[in-house]
Description:
23% strand, RVT_2
Amino acid sequence: MCIIEPESFEEAAKDDSWKKAMEAEITMIEKNNTWELVNRPFDKPIIGVKWIYKTKLNLDGSVQKNKARLVAKGYSQKPGIDFNETFAPVARLDTVRTLVAVAAQRNWNLFQLDVKSAFLNGVLNEEVYVDQPSGFVMQGSEDKVYKLKKALYGLKQAPRAWYDEINSYFIKTGFYRSPSEATLYTKMSTSGILIVSLYVDDIIYTGSSKEMMAAFKDDMMRQYEMTDLGLLHHFLGLGVLQTDSCIFLHQKKYAKTLLDKFGLKDCKSVATPLAVNEKLSKVDGSELADETLYRQMVGSLLYLTATRPDIMFAASLLARFMHNPTKKHMGTAKRVLRYVQGTINYGIAYDKGKGAC
């Protein structure tokens, strides 16, 4: 199936489904009280905006929906004038794996919420103005601009503004933020414990009390526009399979994509990542390989180690030769991918414990 995403507003405006997607985005922006139409200021820079179009797919590859996103041209912003703080913490993979391990040991289920247009909830501290978007210019007010009350996607400070907003809400509602992981929150009560991990607009949560989890979900959906995704199935590019006996993390889809990308989709598999007594050196007498391709291959393998510790040593070894790799290094990298081909279903399984706290 061929997915065609518009590259411009003019192209999108010819398709009713994309027009509806843009209307839905404007509705969400106005519902969040993100901006107000004002006279164009003479002493303030006006930031441009543009439409970005993306087709969201289901796990089976079918079309879920067409999504239009209005983004600010943040690359034109000037530090100290248009923005100050930009850093926003995100959940580390180690934290997510630890949370999965705790949930498995305690025999808890993991659930997921998705915040719709999360950045539109972040309150701005700076005075920011943007142009009216294509297709939605107010008739009779063509010379006016929007003054932002809250952030738009694309602004340099948008991630920080959203994090400050959600962090403030969590603290206000009784959560304790981890001193070593700024996106991990816990809440204790006589009913039990609730643990929440935040990655931008994705929220995963687990705990010992079904009542606390239900109340948390209801509170969040009242406070923000949310999609309840139910049991956690996919997070940070990882597949999550929750069964009665274990929680299984895998990257099957990603591994298949790699094999296809590097032309090894139908390759013959091997039993081990490296050959017996494999030795690599910076100078091995063989010709130089394509450095860009090699780096892509090794970088992809390193990401795959998130759920594949069995290739960790091989990927780390190959990473030593990112500069001037030879064909021998390239051949070794391809061998690791051939091993992945034969072990595509491998991952990390966390056995569930018998008791809960």
